[in-house]
Every structure is written in structure tokens, then in C-alpha cells.
Amino acid sequence: MKKVLALALALMLCVGMFAGCGEKSASQNIEGGTQTSDTQTGGTSGDPAELTLWLPIYQFGDGISDEEFWNQKLDAFEAENNCVVNLEILSWSDYATVIYTGMLSGAGEGPDVVYVTETYDLINAGLLAPLDEYITEEDQEKYVFLDQGAYNAEGQLCTWPMMAGNPCVVFYNMDMLAAAGITELPTTWDEFYDVCVALKETNPDVWPFIQSWGATNGVSAMLASFWPFFFQAGGTVLDDQGNLNLDSDATLEVLNFINKLKADGIFDDSIVTMDDPNGKFVNGEAAIIINGTGNAATYTEQGINWQCSLGLEGSGGLATNFSVDSLAVASYCEEKALAADLIKYITSAECMDDYHEQIYGMPSLTTDATYTEPEPFQSMYTNDADKMHVVPSFEGSASFMDQFQQNVQGMLMGQLTPEQVIEQTMTYYNEQIVS
To answer: Which residues span the domain enclosing 333?
Structure first.
């Protein structure tokens, strides 16, 4: 019944699903109200409608395979909706390129519903269908991360979060803090700076705080070293027209703070080549690090007495960044309402509770799902989801971040001012990427 394509396993790090429906199509928002269409799924002759679903592999252990898991789950959706879902499980190797190429091929070759990681090119090429008309008031109340999907230039939601989590939080070595007489975790930038100074005075041979401005690329460098502070400063990556918004007061505020840490000796000269801050924290060579929550188990295994906080409060309040991969409907899909229903079914508690247990553990997507994250992370997802922000995809993002990293390195070496970092990076972006 199902066509399954299982490509070879080739894992890449990727910095990096929806309530079932019956014979009626997805509910639609009409003039602020909710109306349900009476159109039955399937062809006019009663033949089953067909959808092609592309998902990446996430089962890297010895358990049930991705294809077997989803084939079992899709049986119920197919029976209830008189349809056939042709599932294809893809490798992570060149995943974004494979998706883009497949969707350019259009109906019959590309997917109708697809898991997406990088969205700018897909949205810019008009390959993703807006989903707003399929979002109900119930969806808005139930889906925790729905507003963290990707939007087109008209402000329409084009992706539906499926894998959301691993926010960058602040980890502290509590033994080192205790030795410096620190009994409470800092909550603001100023308090954080004072803690760093105290740690430096107590143990000058240990990094009070460490960042990765020597990472192999700008995306990695900015992940935990810039974006958490940017959102805490009230920054927005894109403006209302979808244009890059890094020439901003928030960016300058962050750069001034990072520059102050270097000028006052919290960072030494090797910060511009630092590519393994996590190793320094694990080895007891650093007291504080900002890193994804997924690293907590390693710290515990290494015997580190750690505590963490979601982030710090800047001028824009408490915030941090996290990652979101999503599902989307192809613009050429002939059964968009059915495709939207499939997305809701996949991301529903009915599917996701089992998926997180059998395939890949991640935070729950809906308020009715089973929560399995350990503390303190579960409380963060439950209480502070609105403080976690996605860095949206934008034109030339990787090249921009590479240039930004290089200019921040220049600032940390005393060659550029924070203002010049912004000016030179934006000049490069406007002249070399978007011109």
C-alpha cells in the first residue's frame, strides 16, 4: 500500500505533527471564526487520495525503524481519511539539497508533506504553501511552539514545528561558584559580569566564562555565543518586511558586552581560536558555559556539580534561542487540506508520545502530550516556551554568520570597534549577498 524509500544512513548534525481528522477536511479560520468544510477526502469517484510524505531518519539505535514506526501510525490515518500516504525515509546526507531539488521537480516527483530544516530558499521560491487557513483556535491553544514556524513575506505561517528543543542555557560549575563565595545564580547581565569577576579573582587559572569564537564556522560560533544575548537584548533577526535586522541597537548592545568581557580579562587572547568550550567546561577549566540542554547528561556523567538557568535578563527581558525543525505542505500539493490534517496527526500526542519513546526523545509539542524531559528542563519547556526564540532562515545566512564571526574576532583582537563590526558585516551582506 505504501511506497517506502529507505536511503543509506548518513548522519549530519542539524542545528539542527497534528490531530487526526475524519471524513471532513481541516477546519478553516474564516473572518475570525472557525468553519469546517464538508468536502470529503479522496477522489471524486471515491478512489483514495494520495500524499507523498518525506521524513528524515531519526532512529540511530537498535529499536523499531523509522519506516516501520510511521507505517504503523499511518494505517489509522489512511483508513479514517480514505487516502494513501506514500512514505519515504531520507538520509541526512545533503538533506536540505535533496529536499529543495525534489520540490523543484513538482507534483509526482517531490513530496506533498515534507520535513524541513532550512526554509529561506523553499519559501522564497514559492514551494511551501501557507498554513494559516488550516489553523484553528484549538490548534493555537494546544500547540506549544506553533508561532516558531517559518513565515513568508506576507507574514503567513509556512511550516509547522515538529522537532523543537535543546535551548541554549547557562550552565554553572557550582563548586567553582561556591569557592568564590557565590551562593545564588545571577539573573541579569550586570550580575553575571560580577560573578565572572569574582570567579577570575578567586581562580585566575580557570576561565570564568567561555565562548566559541574560534568555531569552525559562523553558524556554530554564534549559536551559543551571540544569539542568546541578542534575544535578551530584545533583538529581532528579521524586520516586519522579512529583511535582516542585525544593524540594530540590540546587536550593538551584545557586542559591547562581549567586548567588555575581553577588555576586563574575563576572556584572554585565545578566545578568538577557542573551538572547544565544552571540553574546557567538562575538564574543569571553565566555570560557566552557554550550551544546549542536551549536554547536561555528559556533565553529570563527568561528575560536575552543575546547575543551570534558562538565560539572563537583558534590556529585552529573559530569553534564549533554541532549534526548530518543521513539517510543510508543498505549494503544488493538490490535497492541501488533507496534507494539513496529516501534519496535525503526525504531531499529535497520539503519534508523538510513542515517537519520543521509541524513536527520538524531544520536548512535547502539545499541551495534552506526555512530558518526559528531566528537570529542570521540563519546567523550562512548560513555563518558558515563550522565551525561547528561533533564529529564522534568511538569505545567505551561513555566509553572513561567517563574516560576522570574522569581524567579532577582529574586535576581540582590538582591530575593530563594535560599531565597525556591524558596519563592515552589513556592508558585506548588502554588497556581496543581496545585491
So the answer is: 5-165+323-375
